[in-house]
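in:
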């Protein structure tokens, strides 16, 4: 029986403690400790303020109201000079080496080794006219020529009448 009384007494003390905690007003909470990082630096004195990037001289701030970024042209790398020819109606609609259908009205070209999708600036050395073509086929298969352009590109280069022209090739991006 003594064990039973002790058990009720211990439970009563526990219940009394829980009731006391519940009755404590919220304003009696412990104060929130100060910022631990601020306490570490308190011994060194006040921390310096960060400079204002707008009013502080010597900072490389950018005025976004008057900012005009430079527009960069794609880097060109001249990689060939030689004779160009063109192909047109005879091959129109046929499948190219890349799998696309050849369109003589598109700005495309055939090159023996450049990756498909490469963009090349072709410049006619005699007239100075140039066009940008996308490589989508293989060729030319004549050793004296370095590129075959589509009929549309040939028209802009001014080489349709002669069928060929001396050109400079520059690889873009």
């Amino acid at each position: 029986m003594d064990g039973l009384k002790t058990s009720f007494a211990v439970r009563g003390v526990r219940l009394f403690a829980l009731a006391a905690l519940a009755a404590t007003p919220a304003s009696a909470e412990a104060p929130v400790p100060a910022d631990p990082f601020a306490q570490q630096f308190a011994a060194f004195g006040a921390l310096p303020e960060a400079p204002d990037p707008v009013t502080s001289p010597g900072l490389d701030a950018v005025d976004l109201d008057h900012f005009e970024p430079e527009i960069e042209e794609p880097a060109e790398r001249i990689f060939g000079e030689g004779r160009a020819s063109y192909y047109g109606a005879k091959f129109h609609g046929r499948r190219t080496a890349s799998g696309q259908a050849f369109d003589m009205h598109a700005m495309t070209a055939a090159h023996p080794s450049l990756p498909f999708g490469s963009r090349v600036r072709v410049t006619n050395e005699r007239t100075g006219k140039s066009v940008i073509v996308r490589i989508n086929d293989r060729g030319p298969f004549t050793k004296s020529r370095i590129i075959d352009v589509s009929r549309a590109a040939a028209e802009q280069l001014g080489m349709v009448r002669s069928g060929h022209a001396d050109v400079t090739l520059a690889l873009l991006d």
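note: Residues 76-172 form a domain with the Barwin-like endoglucanases fold (CATH 2.40.40.10).
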